[in-house]
Amino acid sequence: GSLAHAAFRIGFFIVFVSGLLLLFLESGSAEQAIMIFTFVIGLVFLIGVVIWVRLGQRKP
Fold this sequence. Notes:
elongated, 2 helices
């Protein structure tokens, strides 16, 4: 539904922006550590949304 679509878009935005910023941040900096954390959290969120949508599509 629309909630799943919105959640996927938010998750994708977080992963895309943090991944893009990782390319430009200084290696070993605090900013890079926060972006890696944000990237991982975004990926976990996206995986959760995908699992949620897949389970919702099952028809018993």
